Amino acid sequence: MSQAADLYCVMGNPVAHSRSPAIHARFAELTGEHIAYERRLVPMDGFAQGVRDFVAQGGRGCNVTVPFKTDAPLLATECSERVQLAGAANTLTFRADGSIYADNTDGLGLVADITRNAGVSLAGRDVLLVGAGGAAAGVLGPLLLAGARHITVANRTLARAQALVQSHSALALLQKSELTALTPQALEANFDVIINATASSLAGAEVPVSARVLHPGCLAYDMMYGPAAQGFLDWARQHGAVPRDGLGMLVEQAAEAFLLWRGVRPPSAQVLQEMQQANSSK
Questions:
Q1: From the candidates 69, 125, 168, 262, which is the catalytic residue?
Q2: Annotated catalytic residue 69
Q3: Which has the least CB within 10 A, 99, 167, 190, 255?
Q4: What is each CA distance from 168 to 164, 195, 237, 244, 258, in whole angstroms?
Q5: How far is the CA of 114 from the CAs of 111, 140, 142, 209, 252, in angstroms?
Q6: Element at 35 (helix H, strand E)
Q7: 210-249 residue pLDDT tens
Q8: Is the pTM of this model over 0.85?
């Protein structure tokens, strides 16, 4: 009789759109790891209970998506430096002794996708990060470590952008990078890389910044992927920018989580290529 597969999941609300189960299933196939990975929709006020239930059912780890990334560290026994800096986690590991380890692989995934897969260097570049929630918090540290010259955090509620900038000011100083907080209305300059870390695409809302932030050939990146990102990608293309959705980030952050859980690095570039080919043939 074959041994039961180790159980993992992604928790969020909404979560039906998540392609994480397909990605982790392919990683497992390519690495020979014996895992089962599922989607779990949890109520807006039920994240902690959802985690407890999953652990009780033998769960070994879970990915955390919107809107629970800032809730996840509160359940952890131990948090990585990335989580301490961001105040947000997207990967929980449930250890045999009952402790919970929280990490954030979002920023690693984003930087890997931009620099390796898209071939765009972040060193010495001016970057606009739109949003100041859990998604933005998770990537600001790795963007600074990638050598961005100046990062502007733009958010509708200025105080949230200012708080995010303040929490990363020591790292920015260390990296000799500039950090600025603004509202979207106050943006005047254009940028080399624009990253949409808001949930506007998921909600089908309009792009949260003016087209004046773009210049021909700049990279306009939406962390969302699939149909949700289409409005942002069309907007970027219409204004001469190079559009990219967050599918590569999703695959790369999943690879980091898989490595954390299984001790094996899966071939993320191959899986991303397979998914992009499958999308283009639809």
A1: 69
A2: yes
A3: 99
A4: 6, 17, 32, 26, 27
A5: 5, 14, 12, 21, 10
A6: strand 35-41
A7: 999 999 999 999 998 888 899 999 999 999 999 999 999 9
A8: yes
